[in-house]
Amino acid sequence: MNILVTGGTGYIGSHTCVSLLEAGHSVVIADNLSNSRKETVNKIKEITNRDVLFHEIDVSNKDQVKKLFSNNKFDGVIHFAGYKAVGESLDLPISYYSNNLFSTIFLAEACINYGVRRFVFSSSATVYGDNQAPFKETMKLLPTTNPYGSTKEMSERILTDVAKANSSFSVSILRYFNPIGAHQSGLIGEIPKGHPNNLMPYITNVAKGKFDKLFVFGNDYSTLDGTGVRDYIHVMDLAEGHVKALESIDSGVEVFNLGTGQGTSVLQLLKAFEQANGLEIPYEIVERRPGDIATCFADTTKAEKHLCWKAKRGIFEMCRDAWRFETQYTD
Ligand code: NAD
Ligand code: UFG
After folding, report:
1. Which residue's CA lies nearest to atom 34 of ligand 1?
2. Residues 6+ apart with CB under 8 A from 60
3. pLDDT of residue 237
4. Ligand 2 centre and the CA of 15: distance in Å?
5. Could you confirm whether 148 is annotated as catalytic?
6. What backbone phi and psi angles, to 5 degrees, belong to 262?
7. Residue 298 DSSP symbol
8. d(CA 79, CA 123)
9. Domains in the chain, ordered, with CATH?
10. How far away, in angstroms, is 225 Cα from ligand 1 center?
């Protein structure tokens, strides 16, 4: 299939392009490079030895989306493009709502107008809010505490309504848990813009000497060691999940959790990183971060059954690959 990958030079998008190409699909990337680099296109080509088309466009711009669809014939769309920083979304709600919602609306509209049936959407476990883990796709979604989370919940609703009204449009909504790690080549990985907010990029930056220590946000949660528990998933497992989701799209809308089903605490991840890479990471326990929940991990039964997909890479591999990328990458 010829697949449009929006946000394809970004972290998860670039790894998914590799998996798509390795599975024999063709890839057209549309990215405005607001949080990524054009150089990533060459890295994807180098890893896969395949060609990739790249368009530097803004997919929240209706005219640019229309032009893209009128000049290309797509069999499916994987829509990663969007802003993703929870804290920033509280300061810039209009940017978040307009970028994340207009892109989803214009891409869905173009799919209907140009007869593109398959649509895969990047959602997030954040839509479960503070439900009781493990999170199941059938759970009632709880209100999110930030505009970023709201854009995911709203996009899910928009796509569901569009698919209901158009039987020729089918959607796979993927709720990601916590992707970390990098491609084993060390050529592509996560390059956070500005100050990293997420745990793994912060740890690798401490390891690199950019920061003195990691601040652990709270050790008084009701978890095994008091620190927050998350379902960390290797980004290549996540990428492979997208290929399965795209290929298995049938009709209507299906929602899938993409996680490992295993919870890991902040201190457990820290220790795994130290052991996997033979490093010591200084840390300090500080106050809880507002908006954080204690425990978040997936029930992965549905993805395993319907997509015949299961994450296979463990925490050590995630930590090794994240660090390999960080040591190879230069600004
Ligand atoms: P990323 O920032 O690395 O990638 C997003 C890409 O989209 C970037 O290359 C950026 O330049 C591009 N982009 C943004 N707005 C655009 C626009 N209007 N037009 C064209 N390109 C645009 O982020 P990521 O971590 O790869 O996340 C991909 C998707 O997955 C996002 O939708 C994100 O919300 C979602 N997600 C990510 C996580 C995570 O932890 N990384 C968790 C859950 C969901
Ligand atoms: N943490 C620290 N110190 C840090 C950063 C994080 O202790 O410097 C802790 C957090 O308190 C939390 C855990 O590490 O317990 C993971 O935090 P992240 O910021 O890495 O990830 P979150 O689970 O908070 O959020 C991420 C994405 C969201 C997405 C969600 C889906 O940032 O966009 O996963 O589960 F919605």
Report:
1. 84
2. 81, 98, 99, 102, 103, 106
3. 98
4. 21
5. yes
6. -110, 135
7. B
8. 10
9. 2-180+233-259 (3.40.50.720)
10. 32
Neighbours of 138 (CB within 10 A): 8
In Å, what is the CA distance from 16 to each residue of 11, 95, 120, 178? 9, 26, 12, 16
How many of the other CB atoms lie within 10 Å of CB of 188?
24
Taking the chain, what is the end-to-end CA distance rounded to the nearest angstrom? 34
Structure tokens at 291: 């908006």
H/E segment holding residue 171: strand 170-176
Q: 304-330, pLDDT tens digit by residue? A: 999 999 999 999 999 999 999 999 987
Residue 230: name the closest of 257, 198, 263, 260 by CA: 263
Largest CA distance in the chain: 55
| CA atoms 246, 176, 27, 162: torsion sign | positive
8 Å CB contact between 242 and 76: no
Residue range 107-165, pLDDT digits in tens: 999 999 999 999 999 999 999 999 999 999 999 998 788 999 999 999 999 999 999 99
Indicate which residue's Cα is closest to atom 4 of ligand 1.
Answer: 10
Which tokens in the block code for residue 113? 């107008």
Token output for 302 = 């549905």
Ligand nearest to the CA of 192: 1
pLDDT at res. 193: 76
Atom of ligand 1 nearest to the CA of 191: 3
